[in-house]
Structures are given as C-alpha cells and as structure tokens.
C-alpha cells in the first residue's frame, strides 16, 4: 500500500519518521510524499508549542472530515489523546514507543478498525532504523528526560529517560555513513541526559563515534545545561575531533533566576554563563545556540530585561525565541498567565535584540573565505554549514559541491546566514 508521512516538530520527530519509514518499507509498503495520493496517512505530531499543536489539530480535523484513514503518532499521541479524539474521532493513535507495530495497525485501519495503542515501554527502537539515502542522517539516541520543567509536557508524552544501546547507535552511524551520509544529526529529547540510566554519558558516546572510519561530521543535539558540569571538560576535549561540529545547543530559557526557579530549571544564570564561557575558552571557534521563552507566568519587566541583556552579553550565534503558551499537562498552565499583548510585545522586542546581535556576529565574516560542508540545494544556491554550524548560502555554486567541503568568499550576511560565492579554482 501507499503510505504518506507528515512530520511536525524537532529533529527527534524527523528521526522517528525515518524509523517509521524503515518499518513500513520492511513490511512491503511504499512511502510517498506528504500530500500525494495514499491509502493511509501517518501524522507524526509535536506538542511543544501551542501554535504547532493547533495547526496539527486543524489538519487532523480536515483529514477526518474528508474520510481519510489516519494514524496519529508522536508526542501528541502520548500526551493529548483526548484532543486528537475530539478533532479526529476516526483517527487511530499510536505512541512513539509502539511504532514498531505500525504494519499490523495499518492492516487493521484499512479493514475499518480504529486502534488506540497507549504503550510507553522502554524499547531500543533505533534498532528498527534502516539507513536512509541522503547526505543528512537523523539518529535518535534516547527517549524521555530527567527534568521536570514546568512549561513542558513532552516528558508526559515520552516518559522517563530511556537511553538507547550504545552499540546500536554506533552501528546506525556506521551504516548511515556507508550509505552516503556526510552529516549525522544525533538527537534526543535531551542529549545532555544521555546515558545516565546506563552509567555513561554523551561525552563517552562521542569518544566512540570518533573512532568510526569515514568522511562525516556529527551535530550534537540539544543538551540541557543542568547536566553539563558532570562531563563538560571531556565534552570539550572530544568536540575538537574532526568528526564533530564545534557547536552546542544549550537552552537557557530565561535570563532571570526567579523565572528559572519557577520553570524548575536546575541551574542559575551565573552557572549557565560560567559554563558557556568555560566552553568557549576551551574550544576555539565554538558556536552556541540557545532557546528563550518570553512571557512565562510571573515574568516581570525586569526579568524580561535580564533575558535581553543575556543575549547581548553572551552573543549567542543562534537564539530561538518562543512565546509562552500553556500546555495542558504542564504545571505552568495552572499559574496566572500574561495577556497575549504583553507576550507579543516582549517577543517582538527581544527578537529585535537577537537579530541585531546575530547580524553583528555574522558581519565579522564579510570579506573572509570560509570552508563549509554543503548538504542541501536552495533556490539558486547550494547551502551548507561551517565548522561552527553557521549556515552558508553559496550562490552560483555548482551542484557538484553537494556532499563536499568547499570554500566560499563571504560578501553579504543576514541575522541567520552568511552568503557568498565559491572561491575560483586556481
């Protein structure tokens, strides 16, 4: 049968969709692009942001009204089954942990049955992943986390930390490289917690990946700062290896200690700043991305100003801004909420600060030659990443540089990318 897959959300969800594709193809099904005619549509959902959740529910409602056979999986299937049933009463529901059974569920769905699978077990589902053709491979290393952030319901969807078997992860990286992947994106709900349930950690995993033969480079996914102090020195040592981008995603969420406490983040602003400065001092050319939530319940104007000041002080290469939106199972949804006007104003104000800072950082590249690994085609360009994971847009570049490292002369920048032309061959 023809099965369509529509994926929402983060890199971990993309990795889960790759596993779903692998299981479907092993069952003899053909996976088609989202929107193409199909016998069944799999919707892999996200529940992190309210806006994304509403978009998904609107999509499900329309599919249900159109009489489409739909299977819903992902975080919403674990956390918001009641909302799914309300908007798409005929849709079947499968938790992420049960996607290995999707072929039998498809048989039931085509036969007219509605299946609800609520299983949240510790499984090593990375073993189901078959290497996907392409220059970028998404490889999940764990489910769940060790935190209890008051704004998040993802833990409710994915459960407690379940680190996947180290040898299986290594094998997945090896096979992906053998099938042509040049960039490996290791992903998890929290990479920083990887291995704590197996008496290991992400630095040790990276040390073993560094021994794999091949021309590839690894991007490490998001690490919550509260875990870093336990292995940060070893992490800095190994991230200098040629197989890793000099890049870390460390979500601070707020520049105010009082807000961090209300968020149940287990670190202070000074501790976060100390870790960032320690990493940058240890690893030259380090790129650091962060996340900030604005409009969290109880966030004062002074708290918000502290977040703006942190962006300017630490000069993050990338800062992702989220407007707070209460999630049903998160404890922050029970707190007194800011009005939408306040949240929107703060989001706009801090976004201007972020653009100014990122644009200023990127201007330092004008006139320089930079080396990048190119992995994606753009509109009239080939796009890649520098060693610090800065986005490079190469204009008038031949498609032959896809999958290769190539040098570009930078002549223009924006807040989110640097632009240039290939260095002429001598």
Can you describe what's shown?
This protein is of the alpha/beta class. Among the domains are: 2-117, Rossmann fold; 133-245, Transcription Regulator spoIIAA (2-Layer Sandwich); 369-422, OB fold (Dihydrolipoamide Acetyltransferase, E2P). 34% of the residues lie in helices and 22% in strands. Strands 2-1-3-4-5-6 form a 6-stranded parallel β-sheet, with helices on both faces. The protein has a 5-stranded mixed beta barrel with strand order 15-16-17-19-18. The longest helix is centred in the C-terminal third of the chain and has 24 residues, at 340-363. The model has no long low-confidence stretch (mean pLDDT 95).
């Amino acid at each position: 049968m023809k099965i369509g897959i529509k994926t929402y959300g983060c890199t971990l969800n993309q990795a889960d969709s790759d596993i779903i594709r692998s299981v479907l193809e092993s069952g003899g099904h053909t996976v088609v692009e989202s929107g193409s005619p199909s016998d069944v549509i799999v919707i892999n959902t996200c529940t992190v942001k309210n806006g994304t959740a509403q978009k998904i529910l609107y999509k499900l409602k329309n599919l249900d009204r159109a009489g489409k056979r739909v299977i819903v999986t992902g975080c919403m299937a674990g956390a918001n089954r009641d909302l799914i049933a309300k908007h798409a009463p005929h849709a079947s529901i499968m938790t992420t942990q049960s996607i290995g059974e999707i072929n039998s569920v498809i048989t039931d769905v085509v036969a007219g049955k509605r299946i609800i699978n609520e299983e949240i077990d510790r499984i090593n589902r990375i073993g189901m992943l078959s290497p996907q053709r392409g220059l970028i491979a998404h490889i999940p290393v764990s489910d769940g986390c060790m935190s209890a952030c008051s704004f998040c319901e993802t833990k409710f969807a994915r459960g407690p930390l379940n680190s996947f078997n180290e040898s299986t992860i290594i094998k997945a990286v090896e096979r992906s490289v053998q099938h042509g992947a040049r960039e490996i994106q290791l992903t998890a709900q929290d990479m920083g917690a990887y291995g704590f349930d197996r008496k290991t950690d992400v630095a040790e995993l990276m040390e073993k990946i560094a021994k794999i033969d091949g021309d590839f480079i690894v991007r490490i996914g998001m690490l919550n700062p509260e875990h870093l102090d336990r292995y940060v020195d070893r992490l800095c040592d190994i991230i200098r290896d040629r197989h890793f981008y000099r890049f870390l995603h460390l979500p601070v969420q707020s520049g105010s200690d009082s807000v961090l406490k209300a968020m149940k983040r287990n670190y202070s602003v000074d501790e976060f700043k100390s870790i960032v400065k320690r990493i940058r001092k240890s690893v030259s050319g380090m790129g650091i991305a962060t996340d900030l939530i604005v409009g969290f319940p109880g966030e004062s104007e002074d708290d918000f100003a502290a977040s703006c000041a942190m962006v300017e002080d630490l000069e993050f290469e990338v800062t992702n801004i989220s407007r707070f939106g209460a999630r049903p199972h998160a404890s922050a949804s029970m707190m007194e909420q800011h009005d939408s006007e306040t949240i929107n104003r703060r989001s706009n104000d801090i976004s201007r600060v972020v653009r100014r800072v990122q644009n200023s950082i990127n201007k330092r590249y004008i006139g320089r030659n930079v080396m990048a690994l190119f992995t994606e085609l753009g509109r009239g360009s080939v796009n890649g990443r520098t060693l610090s994971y800065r986005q490079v847009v190469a204009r008038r570049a031949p498609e032959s540089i896809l999958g290769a490292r190539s040098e570009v002369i930078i002549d223009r920048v924006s807040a989110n990318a640097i632009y240039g032309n290939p260095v002429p061959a001598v």
